[in-house]
Amino acid sequence: MTEETKKAIGPVGAVHIAHHLANSDNFQNLFQEGMSLVEETATYLDGNGREEAKQLPRPASLAYATESMRLTTRLMQLASWLLLQRAVNEGEMSREQAGSEKNKVRLDKLSSATGGPSWDELPATLRDLIERSTRLQERVVHLDKMLYRKDAEEHVEEATNDNPVASQLSQLHAAFGKLG
Fold it and tell me: Going by C-beta distance under 8 Å and a sequence separation of 6 or more, which residues neighbour residue 6?
């Protein structure tokens, strides 16, 4: 059994899929996708996007400014998370350090108004970048919850290892949320 496999197996033999995913080629692909999207967005906003924005009517121009700022903010937050996770994967930072730093990254609060008349007037390239960034955001949020919720559950499990009833209740709570 490899050292990585031993790390992936928990106290009761459960495989920690999230930790395996975070250290796999899948994460590397997610990282590359995120960084490429940051670069593509910057190139667009500094070039063609700027020219397209000048051609928009006033309401759409305001929507463009708002959505491009939201897009930039979302991508910077996602890039921060991806860089933190890569640092953990490469041993440059502990999971605990990353968890502490990760609290500064806001992944759930980054929305876009993807409807309404102003949305339809935005350049197609900007809409595409926004949609791709929100899909990336959903994937990162999902992985983040799997990784860091699991860590919290492990700490609870460690604390209840001596009490089998408390351990079972903890597992039920993790699976189904607060009971009662």
Answer: none
3-state secondary structure of 9: strand
CA pair distance 15, 20, nearest whole angstrom: 9
Nearest CA-CA partner of 141 in 105, 89, 178 = 105
What count of Cα atoms within 13 Å lies in the side-chain half-sphere of residue 156?
Answer: 16
Q: What is this structure's pTM?
A: 0.70
- pLDDT, tens only, 53-105: 999 999 999 999 999 999 999 999 999 999 999 998 888 988 888 877 877 78
Long-range contacts of residues 37-41, Cβ cutoff 8 Å, at least 24 apart: 37/75, 37/129, 37/132, 37/133, 37/136, 38/75, 38/76, 38/78, 38/79, 40/129, 41/71, 41/72, 41/75, 41/129, 41/133
